[in-house]
Every structure is written in structure tokens, then in C-alpha cells.
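Q: What would this complex look like in 3D?
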Amino acid sequence: MNSETKPDAILLASCPDQPGIVAAATNLILEHRGNILDLDQHVDRDANTFLMRIAWQHADASFKEAFSAIADRFNMKREIRDPRKRSRIALFVTRESHCLFDIMARHQSGEWEADIPLIISNREDLRPVVEGFGIPFHVFPITKETKAEQEDQELALLKEHNIDTVVLARYMQILAGSVLEHYKHRMLNIHHSFLPAFPGAKPYHAAYARGVKIIGATCHYVTADLDEGPIIEQDVIRVSHRDDVQDFKRKGKDAEKIVLARGITAHIGHRVIVYGSRTVVF
Amino acid sequence: MNSETKPDAILLASCPDQPGIVAAATNLILEHRGNILDLDQHVDRDANTFLMRIAWQHADASFKEAFSAIADRFNMKREIRDPRKRSRIALFVTRESHCLFDIMARHQSGEWEADIPLIISNREDLRPVVEGFGIPFHVFPITKETKAEQEDQELALLKEHNIDTVVLARYMQILAGSVLEHYKHRMLNIHHSFLPAFPGAKPYHAAYARGVKIIGATCHYVTADLDEGPIIEQDVIRVSHRDDVQDFKRKGKDAEKIVLARGITAHIGHRVIVYGSRTVVF
Amino acid sequence: MNSETKPDAILLASCPDQPGIVAAATNLILEHRGNILDLDQHVDRDANTFLMRIAWQHADASFKEAFSAIADRFNMKREIRDPRKRSRIALFVTRESHCLFDIMARHQSGEWEADIPLIISNREDLRPVVEGFGIPFHVFPITKETKAEQEDQELALLKEHNIDTVVLARYMQILAGSVLEHYKHRMLNIHHSFLPAFPGAKPYHAAYARGVKIIGATCHYVTADLDEGPIIEQDVIRVSHRDDVQDFKRKGKDAEKIVLARGITAHIGHRVIVYGSRTVVF
Amino acid sequence: MNSETKPDAILLASCPDQPGIVAAATNLILEHRGNILDLDQHVDRDANTFLMRIAWQHADASFKEAFSAIADRFNMKREIRDPRKRSRIALFVTRESHCLFDIMARHQSGEWEADIPLIISNREDLRPVVEGFGIPFHVFPITKETKAEQEDQELALLKEHNIDTVVLARYMQILAGSVLEHYKHRMLNIHHSFLPAFPGAKPYHAAYARGVKIIGATCHYVTADLDEGPIIEQDVIRVSHRDDVQDFKRKGKDAEKIVLARGITAHIGHRVIVYGSRTVVF
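A: Here is my prediction, written as C-alpha cells for the whole assembly.
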């Protein structure tokens, strides 16, 4: 896609279904001399919910305001994003480095239109790796007593750096306070099982104990209910009796990093709409 | 999807890309009091081709004619289908029965909105199976000399039964004459490799000889160039050194029947648009 | 594999691990002038369990007795099977026909060295399909009161027909009595989720409600704990927001029938060893 | 696997099939007081070739010599490896960094028992990345005229560093001279298609032009015939009409790096036997 065919506006919209929504939106874009490049639309009939993503060119300054009338008319939740604006991502890590390395590799090779101004951890372990990539590394040790306060500090730091997306890249603490609240549906986690199988700690041990023939990974938005957030992406890897727990971990790392990367790509590409406990990934 | 939410019209459209196509089409549907249930749209930027599928309710009789103006304006190839009209499928088979059984099972359980009024073969082998399913079985033996003539006879029979879709379910003859011409982009074949690897005869032997670790199957529209038609669906199955050619064949059969069934589902659901040598499967 | 290279004996063995087991077994086969065609061996180090499958030719009548000494020495559980002896399978079905059709297709095309002398159901629904295949169909209606007694009747029928393998092909009753006891580790079930996710009834509804991006199927041996038996085979299929519960069911059927067939292939090929709650599939 | 259960010897053997090979080998190990941890055996009946891998503990110094008699008796090609000896790998790269990063991440996290003493390129592009990982980077620019001579220089360098395994991690030159000769079946390449589809240059462009629904990657040993070497591992990724050539490249990178890593894992774990144009991966 050369620059001439890149969109300069993306609409993500959801509302109760009724006739005329697509026509209303596309007409308004046309009136504002926009050129639609991609339109994806879906109706969840069980939930009677209309969902749509439109990417277009030549969006003008007055569109956003003009769209308010449509949004009001259809009782629509919507975001209008400028895809030329680079995402600002903060990573949270603990000790496992595979997702970190994978994200750094994509970042350095320019795969994403995103900046990663800082990386946060609850431990010092990955400092050499992070600093090798030239990214500031902030450590907030967490204890039961300091947890809420540290999370507030982290939030302050995230805000200071205008972070719009938080990625938990095998971060081994639960963020349940102010960060979670502020980054609702903007904080992605990778869980090392095909949820809802094996939630919680040590999923590979649990998978091994159950004798499964496939293991997996799940990228989801973080919510207050652990491992219950809306799923963005999942994938699996085949295992056999020859694989022990260590092999599950080794093979699973490949699924984790790929699934997390796909989740990030979808999120920062403004392709995900959350409704209820579900997602649409256009 | 209960009957209240089933579409009664489906538009498949392709044309050179330009602004305003979505708005024009959706407006016309709205004016005719239609309710859009699904809209899928894609622009192939390399080919500068706009492609769209719309499924809607409450299509009225005058829509089709009214749409001609839009089609002319945008130089649009289009089909407007009534999805409540059952497809009429003819199968061609030879000796292998796995695709035949699979299709019969789906047919009998009502998975498809389709009738299968007849099955054609160049051999008698599968007569007991076909007649066990209560479907008329017609045998047209093929020799080099009789080939063209027999194909004409087959075409006459297909027309007589108002067949709209021909499915080659491991039919081991090349249809290159009048049937092919008449059923262009309406005749599906299943090839037992992940094309373009291993075209032609005995792909499992060739795959074994090459020592591949995956085998596959490809559902494509039949064209005059053998195994070169637009691909609708592909899938693969993992093999190992423990599998010999017979195992490739056995495992491959599962891929073949599933891939063919997915191709049929897409085609009779009016989800496939062919442009150039490619397909869009909405 | 032509008949000259087919094995006439298969050993499935498990015992506490210690040095010398492979040498002892292979020496004995050699002494009895056997020719090993396949040997698969695995040690589960966590469980300190040695597991082995050997397939060989020219097994003589005296081998089995001679092997007892080795089995005693290593405290070995073992089965010695003659793979030329055809399996005798009974199917249990209820209303869903996709697994039934798939098994019938494989049966009729000779994919398995197996006979299917009868099919049992708790309902009449599938009688036409079953009788179309020329297989006796026995209906045992189940109520809470009659359940145990009916299961005893079923067991009597199974024994009468020398059934060695029971396959629950979407049988919607729980077999918890005499049949289960008699066919321990010889009764296979297909569950329509990737266990342990979504055990119990209506897994597709549950999967849809959770918003997963993959669905799956699990073939396992039936045990007294519902959906907790040792897993033989699993596979998954990708779904998207475009798929509703009906689509989950339709797509899932393909996974179910393929996974069940693979499980049956492994079981009747004498490739599965159960130990603890796990399987090795050689 | 703790150190107590790690093997200290691995045998990779192939020979014409005949009775008694397993017994002969396992007996000898037993006589030398070895404890077999894993034994994998396979007979390729078409090629009448026996193939076996044994991993065991407590290998003594005299075993290797004693085994010569068995090898001679069965006309056996074999390698006996000490898995505690770390592999010494040299990478060749050009401009693409994704495989390099992925290998570095695995290397740094200790996933492999391997050293990577140097990285070679025909271009300067990746120097900053490589040196960021603290690994010496050697550039040998290649022209038609200097090709053979440069390859000799590279071979001298590889020998100097006692390199046993060469990995072409998207190296965009053909090694056809002295390096290839010296590292026969010890030089791995990653090709960015599911071979034999799309050999040669620009496979993603070719795949896009053909309209395939899956793309893939192939790890194989390098031979004099380009992209024709014995395949070690392959995998695929699903694509759709929404993906253009750039998307193919982006998605394909994930397949490439994972497939290459699996190939390396198999090779340095002494799990691959090449025979004819094929591999067994135990």
C-alpha cells in the first residue's frame, strides 16, 4: 500500500441494529469528499448489535462534528482515529524474555506504526535486555502493601509519556487498580493457554497433567476478572507424549509471542471493537 | 439465524475502484426499504478493483432494474441472487468415494440449501453407493474418440435438470469442452495437493518423493488450464516420515473432503467473486 | 504396505522404567525368528514409566508364553495383539448423523480393518440412515428408571456380537454402568470442545458466549468422570465474529468427525497405551 | 529433564533393513551398562532402509569402537554424538532481521545448547543489530567474480571457529562452492514458501499472483540444486483476499522464523537423518 492509498481516518462504531446505518455513514463520508478504502460491517443478531469499521481517505476537519448527528441518531458508540498517528505503547515484563524480544524485533524493523517509549517491570531481571535495545526501563517492585500505590505511580508515568496502549508481555503481576481503570480495553495481555482452559497460574503444568494433545495461547483485554477479558486472538500448537512440561513451555513460547503480536497488530491497527465480553476483529 | 433474519437478496459486485460505490448501493437498498444484514467490501489496490457483497432483507421486485443505472455508472459486473432459491448441484465422480459420502451426508442432514438431482460418472464403480442414497446415477464412459460428444450429452442432461453448479468430486477425467464453457466459474474441482505444488496426476506420490512435511488439498474453479483455475479454498495436513504414500492418500482424503465442502458452502452461499485468476471469498 | 511387510504381532507394554527392557524384548523376538517392523518407545520421566510398542512379523505361537517371563521380571502391563484380526466395533448414536456417516464411509471404503456388526441408539431418529447402510439397528430408550437395566441389556448384546471396541459417535446419554466397566479403555467418545474447555452439555453455546477464536473437538476414553477420560486426539478450527452458534456447530462437526476417526484409527491400530489419566499414541 | 536423566550419547543410524538390528544395538548398549532413555526406529519400506535414533546414559569410552563391528555387519551409516557437547553455529544473514532476532532471542535465553561465535553477511546492513548482541560480524561482499574466492575465505573462517552447523537465516546469496561441500547436511536454509511451490526468488509475489489461500515456509538442508534439498520442517499460515504482498511478507516472516527455529532445534538435537533426498526427524 503506497502512501497514496493509505487511509487517514478510521471509524469504529457499534450500536443497536436498525436499517440505514451503512448508508448514513457512507453518505456522510461521500459528502465530505472522502474515498472509502475498506468497509467491514457485521451484525451480531443474538445481541442485536451493529458493528462497523470504515477506513477512508481525504477525511476533512469538519467530518467528526458532522458525524455526531449520526451517532446520536443511532445511539452509537464510536471512535474516529487517525491511522497516521503513531501508537504509543508501554510494555510490562517480568522475567520471560521471548515476547519482549519478539516485540523489539518488530519494533526495530518498522513492522508497526508505533513508538515504545518505556518498559516497566516489577523486577530487575530483564534490565540488560531492555537497555540493550536503548529503551528506558522502570522497575516498580510490588508487594501486597505497596501494590496499589505502585500502580498509581505507574499510571502517572504512563500518562506522562502519553501512552495509549499497555501490553503485558508476560508480566507476572495482576494490575487491578488505577492502571486497569484508565486503560480499559487498551491493555492487552497474553495468557499461556487456550482460554478458558487452564486459567490462572502454571497453565502448562495443568495442561500436561490433563494429558492434552494441543496447547495454546490467548491474547485478551485485561479486565477485573482474571483471564476473563474479551479475547482478541488465540492459536494452538500440537504436542505429543514426547513433550514434557519443559517442552510445553518451549513450544508454547512460540505461540505466545505470535499470538500477542497479532493482537497488538489488530489493536493498534484500529481493527478491534469490544462489545459485551466479546470482540469483533475486522 | 431464524427466518426473520435471513436475507432475501445477495449482491456480488466488482468494478474499477472509485469513490461513492458503497454509498450508491446502500442508498438504493435503503430507498427500496431494504435492511442490510451483511456488507463485505474489499479493494484490490494492485488491480484497482472494487469488490463487494451485500446481503439484505425486504428486497423488492423493482430493485434489480433500478440497480442497472448504478451498475452502468460504475462499469460494474454484478450478480443479484435470491438465497432462498435452492442451488441445484450435479456431482461428477469416478472411483473414490470419500468426497461423495461427505457431500451426501451434508446433503441428507440439510447442511446446504441445495438439491442434488443427479450424479454423473465415467465408470460404473460407485453405482451402488449413489443408488443407496436414492439419487439417479448416469454413466458416460469416456474414450479419446467419444470425449467431446459425451461431454455434449452430459451438458444436455445438466441443462435438462436445471443444474446451476457442477462439482467434480474426484472425477478423473478432464472436462474441457462444452460443459466447461457453459459452467465457467460454476464448476468446482478438488485437487489433492496444495496447488501450485504437485499439479497433475499422482500428487501424493510426488509429495512423498519430494519428502514434504505437509500435504494439502485445493478447491478451485475449473478452467481450460489444468489445475490453474482460481483457488477458492485450501488446507493442509501434517505428515511425517512414518507416513507412506498410502498414509498420504488416507490422510489426504480428510483434507480433500473438508476443503471441497468448504468450497461448495462458499459458492452456493454466493460468497465468491472471481476476478482475473483470483477469488475473493467473503 | 503389501502383505509381505505387514506385521502379525503387536506388543503394547508399560512398566516402571529400568535398564534392559528394550534389549530383553527385542532379543526374545529375535530368538523366535521375528522381524521387527516398527518399534516405538518412550519414557515418561515424571511418572518413571517405560512405554513401548513393537510390531513384528513371523510371530510364533510360543512367543506369548515366553514373553511372560520378561513381563514378570519388569512388572509389565502388556497386550499382545494380532493385527490381522479385524476389530469388532459397535457404534452408539442419538440424533446427529455426521460422525455416523463419516464412519460408514470409511467402513465401506475399507479404510479400517474392522467390522461394525451393529449400531445402538437411545432413539429411533437415525434408523433410516443406519438401515440404508445395511447394519442392524438396536434402540434402547433410556429413562432415569430404566437406565441401569438397559445398559445391562446393551452389554449382553455387545458380548453376544463379540464387540471389542465401543464408539460413542455423538451418543447423548452417559454410560456409567456395566458397559463402561466392561469396556474400560475400549470405549471412545467424541466431545465437541477442546477439553478441558467447555465440558458437559452445549459446549458450542458456551464457546460462543465466551467469545473464543478457536473451537475444537476431543476424542477420549470414557471414564466414570464425565469428559475427564484420557485424551487420544484433539484438533481445532478457527472461528470469527462472523460465526454464530449455528456456524460453530456446522464447522465443529467437521472437527468432530475427523478427530473421532483419528482416535478410532489409533485405537484399532493398537497404537494407544493408557497410563494414569494420560495416553501415549505411538 | 534434570541432569540425572539427560543422555550422554546419541546414535543416528541408517542401513539396509534386515532382522536383528535393534537387538544388536540395544544389547551392546546394555553390555556397556548403558541406560536407554529414548529409542526411535523406522523402516522406509519403499527404500528398504532401516533408520534409528537411540539416546542413552552412561556411555563408556569403549562403546564407539565396539559398535564398529555392528555397523560393519549391517553396512550401517552412523553418527555417535555427545549431546552434552554444545553445537557451534554460524549464521549467514543479508538484510532481513526477523530470523536473526528470533535466533538471538533463543540463544540469549538459553533455549539451545549452542554457541554462536560469529555471524557472516554479504552486506553491512545488519551490523548494528548483530553487534548489539555482542557477536562478531564479518562481511564478505559477493560479486560474480569474487564469489568462489570469498566462499573459500568464509570456509577458512568457519573452520577456524570450529563451526559445525551453518544456518542461512535469510541469506540472499547462493553458497554453491567449498562451504556447501564442507557442510553437506550440516547447512540449513529457510525458504519463504511451502516447497516445492514457489522455489527461487520472490515467492510471496508468486504466491500472491497465483491467488493461494495459504502461504508457508520450508527449512531444508542446502544442496547444489537450489531449493531442492532434503526438507526438515514446513509450516503454513492462512491468508485471505485482504492480504496483499506486503501482508504475505509480514505474516510469512512469522512462519519463517518459527520453522527455521524448529529445524535448528531438530538438527542440533541430533534428531535428523538424511537418506536419499528425504529426512527422518525423530
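A: To summarize the key features: Chain C touches chain B through 19 residues (CB under 8 Å). The longest strand of chain C covers residues 35-44.
Q: Very helpful, thank you.
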